[in-house]
Amino acid sequence: MIDFENILDLMRENTHTIHVIVSPLASNDMANVLLSLNQAPFLAEYYNEVYEVTQNSHALLVNMGTISESKLKGIKEALKSAKENNIPIILDPVGVSATKIRLETCLYYLKNYPIKVLKGNYSEIYSIYHKKLSTRGVDSKSIEKEEIINICKDLSSMYNTIVVASGKEDIISDGKDILILKNGSPLLPKVTGTGCILGGIIAAAYSFENTINAIALAISLLNIAAELAQKEKGMATFKISLLDEISLMDSKKIMERIDYERL
To answer: Is 166 annotated as a binding-site member?
Structure first.
């Protein structure tokens, strides 16, 4: 059994600053989730301040949800700061399977900066591995689990990073160990920004313990909260209940409900 208790207790008892560069669509919910976990989100992307913000943070999350010239300039400066100040970088390559500029940008980041965690859905991880767009021809539903497991393992070794592939089952690999997490709710993909929120939780957990277990905790926290939030009501109720359940989550609930496989 994975031991999560120490990591979650550390998060509840101590506050880390998490520098988040994320789409405005997800920023409010992500900030509230991190606050509910006793963490301090700092959402900054202005070029002239991001070096300092990252330097004074415990982790940097770069989410590619929305991009622009000014945002990409700010991201590059934040990545430079993280590299020079040994701040762990979590990269969420949103939409990397859909456009050439996103794919080329993410491949550049992986090549030139010490990305500690690469987190994307099956299609995004597939595209990064094969270095080609996949949304029109290959979506998450058509990628075999065994194939994405092997891709995660190879990508991890290739870029010296922990790889997370989110889907019906979530896969984590550090190049050696592989965890398959099976909790979750079919309602999660129907709420905008839940994947982005997951990136924030991963960044927070990883800032306390740089391990595959910390990432498994983050994923399980969200997925089990989603299971508990699923009620016979509409999507608005589910979203509010999800935020409630995340804020109320503890190690006991996770250990009682977690469904996983270690390869």
So the answer is: yes
